[in-house]
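re the bet — no i am not wrong, look at it urself. input seq straight from the record:
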Amino acid sequence: MMRTIIAIVLIALGTLSAHVWTQFLLRNPAVEAFVNSDRLWLAVFGVVFVFGSIAAACCAALVFHPGSLPGRRPEGGE
């Protein structure tokens, strides 16, 4: 129960602090130049590719776990 409360408080603090750093980023000339450049889409594609690769690896680990394959027994099983 305590972990749930801590998690909710941390999410709330992160959400509230997002307003502050978002305003800072929106007024920063370097950030504005980056958003208006072609490098933004390369960075977006890179982030999507990395997170997609991690998600695919996690799904493959769950699907192909020895205990979940038919006819296979996990280590130490009879």
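see?? The chain has a mean pLDDT of 85. told u. also Residues 1-35 form one domain. so pay up
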